[in-house]
Each structure stands twice: as structure tokens, then as C-alpha cells.
Amino acid sequence: MKNRSAENEKLDNLSLQGATLHRALQSLEWINRWFGNHQSVVKSINRICRNEKKTVSVIDLGCGGGDLIAALAKAFQDKQIPFSILGIDGNSHTLQYAKQKCRRYKGIHFLQADILNDKFNLPPCDILISSHFMYHFTEDGLIRFLGQHLPNTSTAVIFSELERHPFAMFLFKFFSFVLPISKLAKADGLLAIQRSFTKKEWLIILQKAGVKKFSLRRVPFFRIQLIIFPDQNK
Q1: What would the pLDDT profile of 130-158 be if each residue is shown by its tens digit?
Q2: Global pTM?
Q3: Under CATH, to which class is 10-232 assigned?
Q4: How far apart are CA 150 and CA 103, in angstroms?
Q5: Distance between CA atoms of 88 and 91, rounded to whole angstroms?
Q6: Where are the domains of the chain?
Q7: b vs e for 83-117, b when ≥16 Cβ sit within 10 Å of the residue's Cβ?
């Protein structure tokens, strides 16, 4: 666990489709809901957008099956905050699934793009979010990404990420036998932990990227929430 794994997950195959993909996306939604990821991200955005009257534009990088977008849209709708959400993912079949997941909400759009490509262009937005995706970058790639794209975000960047930790591996291996998730999700889950950044590594990345105003904290369970305030880093 000292060094990050560079092994690809099965979900990194952008041509993955059909029942195997759908079961994996359903599994990830279950994990995100019951292990608190949705709640922690939505809670942070609610604090940032408190009493907001104008339309809030949000981009979700690596949006997957759209479950976080749907949770956020519901929260905006409940608080009567106008919103526009763009979900970006590299798998067209995943985006079709996400469109169905979010079909009841207006103001949600999707874009297929290779986020890891150096030529990727992030559209301007108020809030940039990403859930369990940024570990797909190399350390140098993530530093370049932050340096290039933070100026396109006006209010906040919120990354909800796994933290690489041996006890997290042990717990996931132990409990995955009883969790109602697919075999692919179980295998990819272990790899995701091995590929994730530690809190110390995040601090080094932020320093090298020149990010000064941020909040970096551990949240249950074995996850890290990073909030960057771009307007305070200019």
C-alpha cells in the first residue's frame, strides 16, 4: 500500500456495455448512497449555495451512472435553487444509463469526453465536482489538470475520493462477500483503493499545483473530501 497501483479497472474499458455495465453502475450507486458519499457532497454544496437565487451551474467529472447528479438535482429542487448540471464521462453506454437515471429532472445534460486527455477542455462552471474519479490521473497529470482547469470554475471544486489505506482494503475484502454488489464492482473496488491518493499525497499535489485556499478532510468511510476555492487562489 506504500505505492499506488497503476492497474486499470474493468470499468475503465470505455466500450463496456449491457447487463455487466448496468449491474456495476447499480452497485456503485448502492455503495455511494449507503456509505455516505451522496450525503457528504450534497451537504457541502448546500453550504456553498445557501440562499442562492441565480442559476447554479455544476459539472460532474466522471459522472458514471448519474446517481450523484440525481441526488444533487433533488436537493436543488427541494431548496428551490435554479440549477444546470453537466455530467461528463468517457463511456457512451454509461451516459445513456445516466440519462435514464436523471430523466425526471430538467436542467441536466451530458457530454462524452476523455477527461484524462491533455486536450480535454473543461467548460466554465460555478461548481466542479467529482466522485471517486480523480485517482485515475497520475500525480503529474493531476497537477497539470488543476493548473489548467481551476480558472474555469468560479466558486468551488469538490472532490470526494477514496483514501489508500490497508485497513480500508481489509474491511472491503471482508464485507464485500455480503454486500449486494456485482463481482465486477468488488474487483474494481479493491483496485480503486489501491490506486487512490493518501491525504499526504494530496497535500503535495496541491502545493505543486499552486493551490493555497482549500479544505482537505477525512470523511467516513476511508474517504477524503477536498474543497478548493478558485476565486481565493487567484
Answers
A1: 999 999 999 999 999 999 999 999 999 99
A2: 0.96
A3: alpha beta
A4: 29
A5: 9
A6: 10-232
A7: bbbbbbbbbebbbebbeebbeebebbebeeeebbe
